Amino acid sequence: MQKIKLAHHEIGDSCIPFIVAELSGNHQQRYSLAEKMIEAAADAGAQAIKLQTYTPETMTLDLHQDDFMVNEEDSLWAGESLYDLYAKAATPWEWHQPLFAKARSLGLIAFSSPFDESSVDFLESLDVPCYKIASFENNDLPLIKKVAQTGKPIIISTGMASEQDIEDVLQLIHSTGNEQIILLKCTSNYPADASDSNLATLADMRQQYQCLVGLSDHSTGLGVSLAGVALGACLVEKHFVLQRSAGGVDAAFSLQPEELKQLVIESKKVASAIGQVCYGGSDNEQQAKKYRRSVYCSQNIKKGEALSVDNIRIIRPGFGLAPKYFDQLLGTVATQDIPIGTAIHWDLVLSKGA
């Protein structure tokens, strides 16, 4: 069994699903709103909150030529420059320490996604327990090497990464001696269509790369996340917002508090329901077996009388012989008077020809 320890939580086999509420830029750069989001995530039962650590300067150049614009007409951010978008979505670095402290005071794990090497240094100064590598950074090997060298667990979104890309990342991390890795299946569309989720990849990733797997889910609703848990995801990350209608850069595909609460509750049920290979009924079903069908006397039978379709039947409850013996019982002879309603057993009859 594989497990990773994060403070008072364990992530992995036989553990309850680890639910991460991603605040992203949905705080709209209002500190009081970010605090309320953390409180709501804790109330909903999430195990962790995650920030994103960058400045627009560490992400891109302040240019408005085509390369630096969001040109897709169907994008949530169509017409924005990358620089302006990141400026709008960034979490101020001076917020990190008090927000992390707030989260810890509520029993939450608090960590972040660094987007360049300076943000790793900053997060190390705050002693984060783990790191998340975002999908668009999973090809930034220098960044990943610096994160791996901290020796802390690394959660990696694999959106857009080829098998060779993942091999390269894992080889690099292993070369630092770090073996604490969770690979997240991720669809890097915002929002993502459920049909693009390809959750069958979860089992393949686990088998191929021999590590824990999870899901970074950008679809709307809970269906994809719960299916991911059923298919082996030990961690689910969802973007979070207090109220979608109030806006936020990622609000359109973010969960509201009651939805996050339902994800926590239902993911535990899904994980519990997977169980193990079991035939013949669970322990809790054994009592119910008495209501299965069996063979009963349906008319009074005199001693020496033959059993027939007129005096025995297959009915509920299940205290008599199993229905598979019905044909074998026909023509046998009663060894004693058998009152109606008696469960038929072999000691009540003589076999044919005896």
Notes on the protein architecture:
This protein is α/β, with parallel strands linked by helices. The chain folds into two domains: 11-54 and 90-274, Aldolase class I (TIM Barrel, Alpha-Beta Barrel); 283-350, Alpha-Beta Complex (Type Iii Antifreeze Protein Isoform Hplc 12), CATH 3.90.1210.10. Helices cover 31% and strands 17% of the residues. Helix 1 packs parallel to helix 4, helix 1 (31-44) runs parallel beside helix 10 and helix 6 (141-148) packs parallel to helix 7 (163-175). The radius of gyration is 30 Å and the shape is elongated.
Oligomeric description of these chains: single chain
Overall morphology: elongated
CATH architecture of the largest domain: Alpha-Beta Barrel
Our measurement of the CA-to-CA distance between the termini, rounded to an integer number of angstroms, reads 58 Å
What is the third-level CATH name, the topology of the largest domain? TIM Barrel
What is the alpha-carbon Rg in Å? 30 Å
- Total domains, how many? 2
Features:
two-stranded antiparallel sheet; TIM Barrel; 17% strand; 8-stranded parallel sheet; 354 residues; alpha/beta
Structure at a glance:
By secondary structure, this protein is of the alpha/beta class. It has helices spanning 31-44, 56-59, 82-89, 93-105, 117-125, 141-148, 163-175, 201-209, 223-230, 257-274, 326-329; strands at 3-6, 9-12, 18-22, 48-53, 109-114, 131-133, 154-157, 181-186, 212-217, 235-239, 294-297, 312-315, 333-334, 349-350.
